Amino acid sequence: MGLFDRLWPRKRATPVQETAQTRALVERLTVLSPSLKLARGYRERLVPALAQSQSYIRALVDRLPPAREASAANWLADPYIHAFFAAPDEIAHVLSRSPELHAWFDQHPLARETWAVLGMAMNERRGFGVEQHGDQVHSDVAQTTLSFDDHQVRVCGESEPDLREQIVQRVVEQIALEGLAQIAADESRRGALEEERALLRTRRQLLTRQCAGTQHMVGERALANAAELAQLETEIAANEQALAALGLKTEAIEHELAVICDVLGHPAQHANVEMRQVTLSPMNVVLEHAQADGGAPIVFPLARIPASPLGVRAFSLVRFARADLVPLPTVLDADSRFVI
């Protein structure tokens, strides 16, 4: 310790306390990638990164509107449920298509209801319609209509706080999986670069041998070979630089942990929620402020997860009663009648 350190000791950073949630996520990550345990101080490095992602995602989840009662009886009364479903009879039928919903009720035989995440595809259609201003009716008015389909229920909870906590853990886990996917992509790129390097070196060796007997000549072929050799050297240098950027294979474990910590430390780049606020007519036509009379304002989140193949999805927290659950075979049989 130096003189200045003894006179003015530096304040050490307070280590992040490991919670039950972060401990579970660390265990989950080491199951998905056991080699992480071989990295130096893997737990001490993972916990702060996980905590950062958890804090960010929890702030997003806290902003979500409260859960809505998803039932036919609530269709007219709740503008959210009215907007998400075309008809009251559709609610129980659509939600009962979810095997996860049935499995949850099977695993909780005493539960009378569940809280769930309802994910949906949102469609915006622009067209022309009829609009009334006072006593006058105007036709061919530009309008935007919202519709929701592809309703999915995958995550259920015993209460709303339980459901929100599950959302936090699952999104953080998804971010960590994105880090593992980047590592897999790096390894795949390393393999491709090593194959390319072997081919480039073989070409250089063949070209050098071909030029050996013509070095004393000044002909077109010799000049062409020299130009090709110079181009090869440039490609080999670029290849070596790309391989160096991936690090040595002996450093792969440290690199793997560093990538995951970096991804977890920047959660906004891998998951984001945008709150969409609109005022809708009973026909789901988007109303402007001047037309808002008779419309219902709703706020719903749009989830943007780059790693997800579904892209942007609207979703809502809902409460669904066991009494409204339609048996899965009945739902599937009813759906199959519309399949050609």
| Ends distance | 79 Å
- Please give the count of helices: 10
| Elements, N to C (H/E) | HHHEHHHEEHHHEEEH
In terms of per-residue confidence, which ranges show pLDDT below 50 for 5 or more consecutive residues? 212-217
Mean pLDDT: 80
Q: Strand count, sense and closure of the main sheet?
A: 6 strands, mixed
Structural class: alpha+beta
Give a count of the beta strands, DSSP E runs of length 2 or more.
6
Give the C-alpha Rg.
30 Å
Give the overall form: extended
Strand content: 15-25%
Helix share bin = 40-55%
Number of domains: 2
Entry summary:
With 340 residues, this protein is of the alpha+beta class.
Write the layout of secondary structure elements.
Blueprint: H1 3-7, H2 20-32, H3 42-62, E1 68-69, H4 79-84, H5 88-95, H6 99-107, E2 113-133, E3 136-157, H7 160-212, H8 220-246, H9 252-265, E4 272-280, E5 296-304, E6 312-321, H10 328-336
Parallel strand pairs: 1-6
Antiparallel strand pairs: 2-3, 2-6, 4-5, 5-6
